[in-house]
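Q: Hi! First time asking for a complex rather than a single chain. Here are the components, and I think there are two in total. Is that enough to go on?
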Amino acid sequence: MLSFKQKKKRLLTIAVIAVSVAGILYFGYKAIRDNSARSQGNPFEYDIEDFKKSGAALVHYTEVGQIHIELRFVSGVSVGPDDRIYVSGDDSLLIFNGDGILHSTISMVGPAYCLFVDKNHDLYLGMDDHVEVYDRRGAKKSSWESLGEEAIITSIAVSENNVFVADAGNHIVWKLDKSGNRLKRIGEKDEARDIPGFIIPSPFFDVALDPDGFLWVANTGRHSLENYTKDGDFRTSWGEFSMEIEGFSGCCNPSHFAILEDGSFVTSEKGLARVKVYNRIGELVSVVALPDQFIEGTVGLDLAVDSSQRIYVLDPRQKLVRIFEKKQL
Amino acid sequence: MIDKTSKKPLKRRDFIRKSLHAVAGLTIGGLAGILFSKSSSEEMVWQLDPNICIQCEKCSVNCVLPHSAVKCVHSYSVCGYCDLCSGYLQPGTKVRDTGAESQLCPSGALKRTYVEDPYFEYTIDEKLCVGCGKCVKGCNSFGNGSLYLQTRHDRCLNCNQCSIARRCPSQAWNRVPASRSYILKGDEKKKFLKS
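A: Yes, that's all I need. Here is the structure of the assembled complex.
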């Protein structure tokens, strides 16, 4: 018969062995599980995460405001000469004052995919294949004839006497007078005139006029911004493909751009949704927003600039106009 | 005296005529029933909705077939024919050539052919395609989304419970009528729906 002391010793031994076995089983299982979890990583996965972080040190802008757009579909933003903000979408045009308060709404037949407000406060709206002009009170002044069955109007720029219309369907920029009469087709491939031709793989094709009155066009398939005289002569271009922050990524970027008063460029991209500022010779100087500030899959970041050089970014995914201002360094 | 309540005995000729009427009625009714039941329960097949698909690569490994019935398909009317195709080339590639190290497709199933400067046509070699959707992800991220995944019904066994559908994290799989067995994009969609 075992004494109490012996029984106690035996129980203790059994307990130590049981704890040891349980420990070995637990840590063994954990090690196997961790290893299998590691081995499930897919080295062939499509991965662009590193490119999303590129340029973080160059973020010189901060978001100072947001305007919520109560529409189902938003397509374009423009800032007028009095710094009013115009947003198109659905079958309407919303006009906000500088503080982001809704001032008025203009109803239209069909959505305007792009818009421009000129110095006289006239609104030029790109309605799929034709342009419509409204006055500042929202009264329709004219509806111009269609630019053709293939026409897809994606951007408008207006000078003193002319209207420049980017047509992604025909891969050209139309030069029109202010009555809508066609004057010239700009950008058609012409080797004799050193015009490379526009490569537009998707319906993103932007135009703008610089402070000197020259026309800039986003040749998205070539990842460049091209400069033309008002008569359509090719002057220069800049831009290169790169997934890194210095260049334009993907198949067709920059999707949109705007020009600041010093002639530098604000650009936006799809794929890697990012907004950047380049100087007038095409050198990257600042980053306005990086992909982590947008919902994945955001495309169509239309841009506008006000008289204070604040940058307005249309975020169609979140139905916002996002306002960015340069940080005081 | 004549018993007016008694029935006339059924003649053999009448019996045969009534029997034939009954058989004809039953035949017509039966055929109509069969036709109706066939039209109301058309065969259903599995298909992947490309508008919901998140290209998680699970289609390539969860099919019961040794080589998945899910393949990449291409809408030529949607494609931009880009030189720098994000479905064909590795992200961040410095060169735009057909070198294996430049290609995104792990099995080299996506082929490109020069058309004219700077356009290229992209085609899929289904024998090589494993249905991983890596090219689809690249195309959707930067391009027009012309590359997308579909179950090819010349391969699919149409299992009662599709093992890919069971594991699909985005629930992109549906039963669709066999006569409309593909969920296509672009002009291909229009042609398919017209046919």
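A: The longest helix of chain B spans residues 12-40. Let me know if you'd like any chain examined more closely.
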